Amino acid sequence: MSELSELYQELILEHGKNPRNMRSMEAANHNAEGFNPLCGDHITVHAHVVGDTIEDLSFEGSACAICTASASMMTQQLKSAATSDADSLFEQFRNMLTGPESNADAYEQSLGKLASLAGVRRYPMRVKCATLPWHTLKAALEDSADIATTE
Ligand code: ZN
User: Fold this and answer.
1) CA 44 to centroid of ligand 1, rounded, Å
2) Which residues does residue 82 pair with via DSSP β-bridges, in sequence order?
């Protein structure tokens, strides 16, 4: 294992154990529930959107380390961001995990800590764990009443 992937591994474990923004939100005006039946990840994403800005973002529920770390880093990265940033970041995150590009370095600048999840692409089952928070956020921003899934 290279030094870089060890560092990444640590970051994922740290966020999995001590997730950021894992809390309920009274002021939320967008909420959605997400479920990944393959792993059992079941989360709710809360967002407080004012105009085009995600003023506050949080999640709660029960999920594996990969899903929790992804949700934790996602909320950190997108808090105070524009709602359009959520779309473009999700697109890049998904490309990193399922696209032809296998080099995490290519995504480090735009995705920041989220690039640490690049190694997940080698485990297709876990890709769904990593993308569930994003599908759920998208559903929340679109006010979808359906439970978001990874399919
Ligand atoms: Zn999972």
Assistant:
1) 14
2) 53
